[in-house]
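To: structure subgroup
Subject: Chain for Friday's discussion

All,

I'm putting the inputs and outputs inline so they're searchable in the archive.
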Amino acid sequence: MRSRFQFFMVFSLLILLTGCAHVISKDLRGQVDPSLTFREVSKNPDAYKGKAAVWGGDIVKTINQKDGTTLIEVLQRPLGRRGEPKEALASEGRFLVLAEKYLDPYLFKGGRKITVAGEILGEEFRKLGEMDYRYPILSGKQIYLWREYYYPGPYYYHPYYYDPWWDYPIYWRFHFYYHRHH
């Protein structure tokens, strides 16, 4: 009995620890200079060519190129403890991710959260509205696309909130909804 309890505790602890792990590998994060900020790099990306960085944010658009690579435009957001882009009002700008393979624009669509680790490749100027905008370019050595959460109804639901309503079969959900609103 005691060994089962110990096994359960160790197993639970392992599950808990892996759920809190950073989404970018330890090796790549070890190459990053933590004092190097996105704001600093975005002022003069060419000065930081070859340096490693971990950035994230919201995908603006995904462009598949003729040579088989994919370019992702990202609105930068500050990263949380696990590397997830935070829901923040502030952003320090935009950047481009160059992935050396085809990434499906349906999956990597606008609005999805992404975390990327790679090497700073320099800069590229592109039109943003009517202005020429300087985009830092990051190679996509490791790309993590965050899950989308769908919240039914007009109310906000936390992804870990348990709603017993969804345990009812579809017929009963429709029945309760229809009779409550008609």
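Points worth raising on Friday:
The first helix runs from residue 2 to 19.
The chain has four helices and six strands.

D.
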